[in-house]
Amino acid sequence: MNILNKEVFSEDDILEIINSRLEESINIEFKNANALSNDKNVKKEISKDITAFANSDGGIIFYGIDEKDHVANGLSFINGNIFTKEWLENTIISTIQQKIDNLRIFPVRFEDDFLKTIYVVKIPKSPNNPHINGDKKFYKRHNFQSVPMEEYEVRNSYLKERESLVYIEKVISEFIEENDTQYIFKIEVQIVNDGKFVSEKYKIGCDIKNACGLGIKYSEDNYSVTTKEPDGFKISTIKMVPLFPRELMNAMSFDIEIPKKEFDTIIENIKFIFFVFSKDTLQQDEMEVGKMLKELMEKI
After folding, report:
1. Strand partners for 199
2. CA 146 → CA 29, 62, 96, 104, 297, distances in Å?
3. pTM for the complete prediction?
């Protein structure tokens, strides 16, 4: 059972965790019933653990599972009538700055009894880190523990460029014209910023393979083309336009020229691999542009 990828939790899942003697890790922690309380120091501890996961690689905290030597050891039920899901949500929200998006809480009621509650708190790796806890400190995960972040780690988190969430939304093909020897099509690439911050550092491109006989027309002011022997080339942007949150934009446009006599052979074998470079990531998607061009010609 891959706990970290689960979206629903049941009594059987909790019992399997205990029976299999699942170990705590940088992504998993077990807390007994005493970990939830109205005591302000306990609430600070809750926020410390939650922020540590969000400031690191994300993970899951199980409130209501006892541990011994960092191994799941038994049930330690939460009184769900006193410490409700809403209580836990409000505690997390009120003791952590800034809010952790997409954090989820799953109550598991054994025998449908609120007195026998386990809370599974699934914490994402936050693109908005670092988050500060109720004690006005920054924490991270290290092995089985939540430990204070070093000053340089906090500084680097603040200074780093926010995680880029720019991705390719759609590739559009359009028949432009034909002459005595070739068909001409326009290819447009639309991108979207699915993040919460303006993205200014990204690069869009297309790696075209098995392109022998293909011609390409593009704006030299906006794109560069690199020939890739023996039968391909790469086109990529040389200008970056700030992309605002939720903004959809046409980021790339170029024409391709396909000889009529070789049309069927070329579109059967050609590959278009589109990519987005950001500061720390490379996303690649192969699009069936050849199939799109064939369907366009069938409609003419």
Report:
1. 243
2. 10, 15, 15, 19, 60
3. 0.58
Token readout for 172 is 């559009």
Residue 45 and residue 34 in contact, taking contact as beta carbons nearer than 8 Å: no
Q: For the chain, list the domains and their CATH numbers.
A: 3-159 (3.30.950.30), 166-299 (2.60.40.10)
End-to-end Cα, the chain, rounded Å: 52
Average pLDDT of span 96-101: 92
Q: How far is CA 217 from the centre of its chain?
A: 34
DSSP string over 130-194: PPB-TTS-BEEEETTEEEEPPHHHHHHHHHSPPPP-EEEEEEEEEEEEE-SSEEEEEEEEEEEE-
The C-alpha atoms of residue 20 and residue 6 are separated, in whole angstroms, by: 17
Q: Which two tokens stand for residue 200?
A: 């200014």
Q: How far apart are CA 94 and CA 82, in angstroms?
A: 18
Q: Positive or negative CA dihedral for 26, 27, 28, 34?
A: positive
Contact 205, 254 (CB under 8 A): no
Cα distance between residue 206 and residue 216, in whole Å? 12
Residue 58 DSSP code = -
Task: Work out the burial of residue 259: count CB atoms within 10 Å of its CB; fewer than 13 is exposed, 13-18 middle, 19 or more buried.
Answer: middle
Sign (positive or negative) of CA dihedral 26, 28, 33, 37: positive
17: which residues sit within 8 A by CB, 6+ positions away? Answer: 3, 62, 65, 72
pLDDT tens, position by position, 136-165? 899 999 988 999 999 888 887 776 655 557
pLDDT digits (tens, 9 = 90+) for 231-278: 888 999 998 888 888 889 999 999 999 999 999 999 999 999 999 987
